[in-house]
Amino acid sequence: MTDLSRTQDGSAGDADYGVIGSTYSDFRRPDPRIATIVRAALGDARTVLNIGAGAGSYEPVDLEVTAVEPSASMRAQRPPHLVPAIDAVAESLPFPDATFDAAMTTFSVHQWSDLSAGLAEVRRVTRGPVAILTCDPDLLDRFWLAEYAPDVIETERRRYPAVARLASALGGTVTVDPVPISLDCTDGFNEAYYGRPEALLDAGARAACSAWSFVDPERARDYVVRLRKAIDSGEWDRRYGALRNQAAFEGSLVLVRSLP
């Protein structure tokens, strides 16, 4: 077993969701198009483990799901129609070998304290496919926020593990597919606002993207002022206005799928 330190609310990653997760579900609502991609990656599984399950985004309601989530504040935000989440971490899963047909994790692997241990545990308890929805750090510069809030993007680049590292740790047959982000995406991660820059002026929207919590508060305020000025002056639209009518954006979002 791995001895892991936790924040006050139980979060085991580098972000304290007791602080930043209080309104997470207000802004991070699962997008149905992304949900379809995640569900397809699980194949014909009947039992599924969701690691770092949070408030339950992308959990398939037609399957038997076991959810694991170390943050008390995130467990409390799970809606009543989903099963309660177990208080546990990826690095020490309380299940026998080969318990589940499939496993999934969405926007979570960058929070794990020991990625290699976590992925080994996920593979240990899973008979079939493991599906990971994450961001490829090598593709983050595709998003205009790199110009207006560079420390936010650099924070994400440091935190998100390289796709090659995920593939190597999981082993088996691995595929990596880009996940298009729709203009009206309901899951408010940073790139979801590629054509709606005004949304990132909302403090709640930024709080739901944990990378902002790692940026010095004064610098983060400067970034917001810079973005607001660019929008108000028309600068943003002169440079990126075409994105307001672009149906989908292919940024850093990817689906990594491993078959044993």
Automatic annotation (TrEMBL):
This entry's Enzyme Commission designation comes to 2.1.1.-
The family database entries (Gene3D superfamilies) matched by this protein are listed as: Vaccinia Virus protein VP39
Biological process terms in GO annotation:
methylation
What does the UniProt keyword field contain? Methyltransferase, Transferase
What the entry lists under Pfam families is as follows: Methyltransf_11
**InterPro entries on file:** Methyltransf_11 (IPR013216), SAM-dependent_MTases_sf (IPR029063)
- Record-level Gene Ontology MF annotations: S-adenosylmethionine-dependent methyltransferase activity
Question: What SUPFAM superfamilies does the entry give?
Answer: S-adenosyl-L-methionine-dependent methyltransferases (SSF53335)
Q: Where in the numbering of this chain does the Methyltransferase type domain appear? A: 49-127
What protein does this entry describe?
A: Putative methyltransferase YcgJ
